[in-house]
Amino acid sequence: MITFTEPNEQVIKEEKLYADMGLSDKEYDKVVEILGRQPNYTETGIFSVMWSEHCSYKHSKPFLTQFPTTGEHVLMGPGEGAGVVDIGDNQAVVFKVESHNHPSAVEPYQGAATGVGGIIRDIVSIGARPIGLLNSLRFGELSEANNRRLLRGVVAGIGGYGNCIGIPTVSGEVEFDRSYDGNPLVNAMCVGIIDHDKIQKGTAKGIGNKVIYVGLKTGRDGIHGATFASEELTEESESKRPSVQIGDPFTGKKLMEATLEAIQQPELVGIQDMGAAGLTSSSAEMAAKGESGIALHLDQVPVREAGITPYEMMLSETQERMLLVVKDGTEDKFLSMFEDFELDAAVIGEVTNTDRLELFFHGEKYADIPVQPLSDEAPVYILEGAAPAIDDTAHHYGDQDLNTVFDALIGHPTHGSKRYIYEQYDNQVGANTVQKSGFGSGIVRVEGTDKAIAMAIDGKSRYVYADPLNGGKEAVAQTFRSIISTGAVPLAMTDCLNYGSPEKPEIYHQLGESTRGMAEACAALSTPVVSGNVSLYNESKGTILPTPVIGMVGLIEDVNFMADLKVESGDAVYLVGETEKAFAGSQIEKLIDNDIRKQTRHIDLELEYARGMDLRERLINKEVKKIAPVGRGGIAIKLAQLSAFHQLGIDATLDLDGEDLFAENASRYIVIAPSGQNITDGKEIGRLTDEEFHIAARDLTIDRSIETISSIWEGAIPQCMTSVD
Amino acid sequence: MKFAVIRFPGSNCDRDMLNAIVKAGGEAEYVDYRETTLSGFDGVLIPGGFSFGDYLRSGAMASVAPITAAIKEVAADNKPVLGVCNGFQILTEIGLLPGALIFNDTHTFISRNETLTITNNDTPFTSEYEEGETVVYPVAHGEGHYYCDDETYQQLVANNQIVLTYNDNPNGSRNDIAGIINENGNVLGMMPHPERALEALLGSDDGMRLFARMTEWEAEHDYIH
Prior knowledge:
The structure holds two protein chains of two kinds.
Chain A: H1 9-14, H2 17-20, H3 25-35, H4 41-50, H5 53-56, H6 61-64, E1 74-76, E2 83-88, E3 91-99, H7 101-106, H8 108-126, E4 129-139, H9 145-165, E5 169-176, E6 185-195, E7 210-215, H10 225-228, H11 249-262, E8 268-273, H12 278-290, E9 293-297, H13 310-315, E10 321-326, H14 331-340, E11 345-352, E12 356-361, E13 364-370, H15 371-376, H16 402-410, H17 419-422, E14 433-435, E15 442-445, E16 452-459, H18 461-466, H19 468-484, E17 489-498, H20 505-524, E18 529-535, E19 547-556, E20 572-576, H21 587-593, H22 605-620, E21 626-629, H23 634-646, E22 649-653, E23 669-673, E24 682-689, E25 693-697, E26 700-704, H24 706-715, H25 718-721
Parallel strand pairs in A: 4-5, 9-12, 17-18, 22-25
Antiparallel strand pairs in A: 1-2, 2-3, 3-6, 4-6, 7-10, 7-11, 8-10, 9-11, 12-13, 14-15, 15-16, 16-19, 17-19, 20-23, 20-24, 21-23, 22-24, 25-26
Helix pairs in contact in A: 8-9, 8-11, 9-11, 19-20, 19-22, 23-24
Chain B: E1 2-7, H1 14-23, E2 27-32, E3 43-46, H2 68-76, E4 81-84, H3 86-93, E5 100-102, E6 110-118, E7 134-141, E8 145-147, H4 150-158, E9 162-166, E10 177-181, E11 187-190, H5 208-214, H6 219-222
Parallel strand pairs in B: 1-2, 1-3, 3-4, 4-11
Antiparallel strand pairs in B: 5-8, 6-7, 6-9, 9-10, 10-11
């Protein structure tokens, strides 16, 4: 018999070794209660990862239940690897967003790469072929060398994985703010397409059916990654570098193709990706969903080196692995298929009628845990939130040099061109990318059809900080605006909730109020939540801004209308929606006050929906040529971005105060269309020209050449990245 | 005309390549890298991607794959062989084309629509283009810098083997070289992706004529030397 030197039950209890793994005293007591005895080392590890925030949502579950998750198009909501939404013709779109913040903070390349790999496997495990990747990134200001290092590493990592596996990265968003110093946010989203009858579930059913492991050999990498992701980042986090997984997109590609072939086989019962908490969560969750037990013979697991213990095997987060349950007697068919793909695979267990997760290693039992309590009885914590004091002082920027403000904002990496980033991502592999990164949502055609999927990702953390409730609504609404701007009907969304420690009352309040706002917006905008992810404890030098990130998809029935839309000199420029002096959470406030005032923001969701759907209709009817939602930096920045992107001048006059050009209230768009259109709530404010950029407000004139605007906008990020770090 | 689209583990433009030649009117089938014959095929397409994960060096592992000998036979039979991106890297590694592809000067991956010039339309791949014509094909590569020594370069020039050049060199390639053909005129390698340039809706349809021309390949006429 092989024996491992591991602390025994008594030592775990007396020396509180469970605490090092992330379990509280109370949680440990609960484990003892569930087992009816003290857990051994392997069992303690299993409970600690399954009950980590990352896997159990123990602080966020009460908020997640607020979200509407059903709708006429929803085929599968939260609970599986990803959500599934009908797009007609027996096809469906599968998508999800996930965070990889903590790993990216300590090892940016691998942290980001494995974030991309993980979300791809979630989509593939449903049975869908991925057609697009998106990412939402947040870093501290690029004036800090460490943030430049993180940006370089994260972007290279995202490209390194996505380019190699061959899925186009078609859209994204990036924001730079000092609250993310040392705690970058890396949220990756993947979108795939599937036929209705191929939708898989992560379930282990049918006594005697076989459990197959396929993918990379298990190593010691990423042990306790899920626990690590559920803690605050400290100086000791550097020492957790071994908790960061290593990506292998080459194996990922083979695994993706093999999985997509496996789902064609009728003998496949269930499949799940081995993501966070690896073999533990995949096997326990599949057993729980199948209302079965599962027995694993860990000596059968392909391993990278000898001497890996059951504990390490169960907690390893080695990438590029999948767990399948197949009908008893058909395992050889699957094994030979995987062999053809040159992947390691093995039968490592079977479905049992015990309702228990039983782990054996060379005949010795290393764990025996009832499945349901492990996955369902994770503790849920309901804490007290505390609303911060409101600061009602009005903002005044009329006496500022607004021309200088304008240059500073378009030249800031948050508003400037993201070319430095997106040109490192293959955005056309697959030869169906209709609109790639650069301006607005990504659009990818569904192969062999005229249909296309619009996909966008966005977050509005400063608004959420200023007013969690309405900021939460605005985050959803902003993404909705991006989707309708392509002519797509928004279908559904996914969310990634990035916040600080929920144990701080103000953070808990942000979490509660912002998710309430998001839920209201989802209902009003007909975009149910079909999947999501939570990342808490994003604390490093301080607490990050509350950052719910929204990923949304929409359907374009016939994408060919886009071929006729060409923005050109002579077109009229319209402003749709009223401008209000809304500066709480705005970019001019950030620039001048270096702070965010906590005050009420406003959004009318009914108006938002009606306006968005009206404009969408006008676009697909070709009455208008381009819709550009007004976001960060207000009208002035949106007009500058349009000018730089299209290399056209603008001649516009607005009956507004100069400072209003930088106001950031909701539900507004710049629309490009032929002159003389009657657009609901729209005003024609000027024209596109071949001359210069000229906008005039009551007490402000901004005149720039197209070249000047372009060079400031294009140079925003590169000028920060030229210095040798 | 029936083309083989070679599939290495890690190829990821294989579907795009197959779709392109079929759209142009050709027939095509995937052929696994473990196969040892290409009999029955009238031409070979080596797609882009990361064959064998680009481990060791892009294209290096593919050079010892079982299918490689068969690809060389097809080339020797004066049938068309097109390698795009990783396919170009493989063609240089297996010795069907001279030179090598090394890391981009920026040391970052570059993905963008590139404006190129057809510098030689006197080939059976490019005869549907005007000489000096400007086309737009996407590029997407990390190791796309075409490198060769002076002697090789002089030969390329003397034999008119440089088919495609960058107008705004993205990777530091010698003399802006984006694509070259073998001396015999039947093996073409290029870093840009013509298979991604088949429809104006997707940004460019400049690649269509290349594939259309390949489907009309006639060995007796298209055999240059």
